[in-house]
Design brief:
The chain is mainly alpha-helical and about 200 residues long. The chain has nine helices and no strands. About 35% of the residues are buried. Bound molecules: fe (ii) ion (2 copies).
Length: about 200
């Protein structure tokens, strides 16, 4: 069998779906590599499009955010999340935070995924008032157990990481960590650690 027999999913049988399932599980093993390839594209200046104007590329920003997390002895979840928090920027610039969170969510602590998911509105604290908008838009999450975690992520690692002179580590430094985290069994409660507030180191 080289291809399934069906042309509409409703017509597939068990043989078809067992055949596809094997491919799918093989495909999962390449997620980390595909994510790293997407990140590398964010360093290609020809791909910057409307995100030009910063002193660093999106890749350099991602690497710098992850470097800060690593230098603070953050755990694997945090370092990989810091690296990938803006991974959605090329294809979902207006909801890049949610896209990044969904890529990470099966593999990292719930708290870390929440911080990535909401970093967009928390980052507004640093610039929104300059554009006549509400810098405290994040207050709609006041009282949430992960509020302070997200605020700290933005304050310590995300917002300062636009510095071309920072000693930023290269992508190769982080690639093994991305492989390691994406090799975890998806949605396993042991690494999701639901409802646990750990914060930043
Ligand atoms: Fe972002
Ligand atoms: Fe960012």
């Amino acid at each position: 069998m080289e291809k399934v027999k069906f042309r509409a999913m409703a017509d597939g049988d068990a043989e078809d779906y067992r055949f596809l399932d094997a491919f799918e599980h093989q495909y999962y093993k390449g997620t980390a590599k595909r994510v790293l390839a997407e990140l590398a594209l964010q360093g290609d200046q020809s791909n910057q499009d409307g995100l030009s104007g910063y002193q660093v590329s999106r890749l350099e920003h991602a690497l710098q955010t992850a470097t800060r997390a690593m230098n603070d002895n953050a755990d694997d979840d945090w370092i990989v999340a810091a690296l990938l928090h803006d991974i959605g920027d090329r294809i979902a610039p207006q909801n890049h935070d949610t896209v990044a969170a969904e890529i990470l969510r099966p593999f990292v602590r719930e708290e870390v995924a929440w911080a990535v998911e909401h970093h967009g509105v928390f980052q507004m604290y640093y610039y929104a008032h300059h554009l006549g908008k509400d810098r405290e838009a994040r207050q709609k999450y006041a009282g949430h157990p992960y509020f302070q975690t997200c605020a700290d992520f933005c304050e310590r690692w995300d917002q300062p990481s636009f510095d071309p002179d920072y000693q930023t580590k290269p992508l190769q430094t982080f690639a093994p960590l991305v492989e390691k985290v994406f090799a975890r069994p998806a949605w396993h409660v042991e690494h999701l650690r639901p409802n646990q507030v750990v914060g930043l180191p």
